[in-house]
């Protein structure tokens, strides 16, 4: 099956994508005006098959959720904890640095 010579116009493709995003945004805004959110107690509670449930029964304990991860990485946490400053810019620097290191590892493994 052959379709012949093709045409690729990056400016046209970008324009079509932006137009699609704009149409999606219009649909989203229109639907929000038509049906405004009306939260009720029934809508925001956890479904428990018709039974009454307390919040303590439905929410997972963060201590139990993160303790296995904390145990596995405890040595790394002890090493990295002194650099914990509470500053968002420092966290962003760590994230970007980690991303660059992972990217370098991927590029080196690819070659």
TrEMBL record:
Keywords: Membrane, Transmembrane, Transmembrane helix
Transmembrane regions: 6-28, 91-110
Domain of life: Archaea
Protein name (database record): Hydrogenase
Provenance organism: candidate division MSBL1 archaeon SCGC-AAA261C02
């Amino acid at each position: 099956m052959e379709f012949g010579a093709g045409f690729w116009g990056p400016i046209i493709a970008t324009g079509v994508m932006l137009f699609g995003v704009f149409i999606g945004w219009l649909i989203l805004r229109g639907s929000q005006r038509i049906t405004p959110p009306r939260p009720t107690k029934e809508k925001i509670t956890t479904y428990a098959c018709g039974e009454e449930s307390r919040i303590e029964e439905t929410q997972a304990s963060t201590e139990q959720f993160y303790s296995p991860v904390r145990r596995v990485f405890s040595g790394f946490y002890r090493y990295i904890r002194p650099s914990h400053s509470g500053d968002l810019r420092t966290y962003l620097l760590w994230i970007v640095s980690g991303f660059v290191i992972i990217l370098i590892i991927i590029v080196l493994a690819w070659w």
